[in-house]
TrEMBL record:
The protein's name in its UniProt record: Aldehyde dehydrogenase
InterPro entries, per the entry: Ald_DH/histidinol_DH (IPR016161), Ald_DH_C (IPR016163), Ald_DH_CS_GLU (IPR029510), Ald_DH_N (IPR016162), Aldehyde_DH_dom (IPR015590), Aldehyde_DH_NAD(P) (IPR012394)
Sorted UniProt keywords: Oxidoreductase
A Gene Ontology biological process term: aldehyde metabolic process
Length: 482
């Protein structure tokens, strides 16, 4: 499959803007023409997953990002001219964005359509061909994508692979020109290790424990409502979900009361509620329940928000009730492991710098949340924490602008996409310089080295030393640099 795409890529060369836009259009047609089938497949994979939620998050929610990419393809393809003044004398230089070649995309199970279509659209915009490895956990969706793609694409443009972990391992070890992975940090490390054998560059979109700081000046009730609702998107199985909340000590009770009321109002029933998302499989159900029970066993206060008459968690439907956990400490697994379920932990803080220190003692998250005004405290929070993005007063607000790059940092990932960042990720910026002057500029680097060259080098060094010394002296006197 890879060799077929590589032969076609080399035979065609870098595609035109029209071809790139056409591939993006066919990718969107694949998704839009078959939206009902994909939504049904995802519902079958989860057991219970809201069809309205799948429509919004998997299809409608990505349209603006793809349209933004499509509309800018021709502009992003243009070479950047350098040294314009020298062109008249015969020295021409430019940087050309060129396709990498064949891009491998390994998709996750939590948004099995969204998170392969978005990177594929960026790879097409950059002029590449694409191979997708769908998640085996959402098998119905994977098989549907594999069966549907040939109706819209030649296999030399886009090909889809299905199969279990052994197929994923083989896929990761292929000599792609770029490998894009979305998933957990532990699996991401395996993907990066496999790719390294062929020196394949990787983009890793990973997860993490996303912190939320409720500011001293925040509206606690409004904050708790929004945070609780954000935690329940896709049953909490979202890499940008709020994971733990830091609340001023004297406002914890008010926060928990408001969150509890919100969750009760959202879900008057759960077990028979088609809008309440199940854990994707038994393994994730057992893992999340295990985190809750471990916290309880170590003394945490655990409150399950269950409708009257329902017993949760319910193993038959793989539904875990919304759960609020207080009194967390470092002995508990839930303090360290990404929850990826409908569970919110709440902790207190007395000073903002203490909350910031707590966050900074842990791996950098994919997103850091702040609920409160845009004031000096917020600017301190942004300046002194490290995360893939920052969102204030709303769930996943950092993803609202279609042009904004999306990606993690440190353990939450490397590289970014969405907007031009995606085009850049899947492009090689190639410098092209031509010299039509009657002499060689760089030939002076070869011997023999005459007196004019030596005098010129000595003068350049003297000027550079004086300039650097003046800057350091101005800095020492607290004066602005020139």
């Amino acid at each position: 499959m890879l060799e077929r795409q590589r032969r076609a890529f080399l035979a065609e060369g870098p595609p035109s803007a029209a071809v790139r836009r056409n591939r993006i259009d066919r990718l969107m047609a694949l998704l839009l023409d078959n939206s009902d089938a994909f939504i049904d497949a995802m519902a079958a994979d989860y057991g219970t997953r809201s069809k309205a939620a799948s429509l919004f998050t998997e299809i409608v929610g990505i349209i603006s990002v793809v349209e933004h990419t499509r509309s800018h393809v021709a502009h992003w393809m243009r070479p950047t001219k350098l040294m314009r003044a020298a062109r008249m004398s015969g020295l021409r230089a430019e940087v050309q964005p060129t396709p990498l070649g064949i891009v491998g995309i390994i998709g996750p199970w939590n948004f099995p359509v969204n998170l392969v279509v978005l990177p594929a659209s960026a790879a097409f915009a950059a002029g590449n061909r694409v191979m997708i490895k769908m998640s085996e956990i959402t098998a119905h969706t994977a098989e549907l994508m594999k069966a549907t793609a040939p109706k819209y694409f030649d296999a030399a443009e886009l090909d889809v692979v299905t199969g279990g972990p052994e197929v994923a391992a083989a896929f990761s070890a292929l000599p792609f020109d770029h490998l894009f992975f979305t998933g957990s940090p532990s699996v991401g490390a395996l993907v990066q290790r496999a790719a390294a054998q062929n020196l394949v560059p990787v983009t890793l979109e990973l997860g993490g424990k996303n912190p939320v700081v409720v500011a001293p000046g925040a509206d606690v009730r409004r904050s708790a409502t929004r945070i609780a609702r954000g935690r329940m998107v896709n049953g909490g199985q979202v890499c940008v979900c709020p994971d733990y909340v830091l609340v001023p000590n004297d406002r914890i009770a008010a926060f928990v009361d408001a969150a509890r009321e919100t969750l009760h109002g959202m879900f008057p029933r759960i077990v028979t509620n088609d809008d309440y998302c199940s854990s994707v499989n038994q393994a994730n159900f057992d893992r999340v329940v295990g985190l809750i029970e471990d916290a309880r066993a170590h003394g945490a206060h655990v409150e399950t928000i269950a409708p009257e008459g329902e017993s949760l968690p319910d193993r038959a439907t793989r539904k875990i009730g919304p759960t609020i956990v207080c009194g967390i400490d470092d002995r508990m697994k839930i303090a360290h492991e990404e929850i990826f379920g409908p569970v919110l932990t709440v902790q207190g803080y007395s000073r903002l710098d203490g909350a910031i220190d707590y966050i900074n003692q842990r791996p950098a998250p994919l997103v850091a949340y702040w609920y409160g005004p845009d004031d000096d405290d917020f600017r301190t929070f942004v300046r002194n924490t490290r995360s893939g993005g920052v969102a204030r007063n709303d769930f996943a607000a950092q993803m609202i602008p279609s042009a904004a790059p999306f990606g993690g940092v440190g353990r939450s990932g490397m590289g970014a996409y969405h907007g031009k960042a995606g085009f850049d990720t899947f492009s090689h910026y190639r410098t092209v310089v031509g010299n039509d002057l009657p002499f060689s500029i760089t030939g002076t680097a070869a011997p023999p080295f005459g007196l004019p060259l030596r005098l010129g080098a000595s003068a350049a060094m003297r000027i550079a030393r004086m300039r650097t010394r003046r800057r350091l002296e101005r800095g020492a006197r607290g004066m602005p640099e020139i």
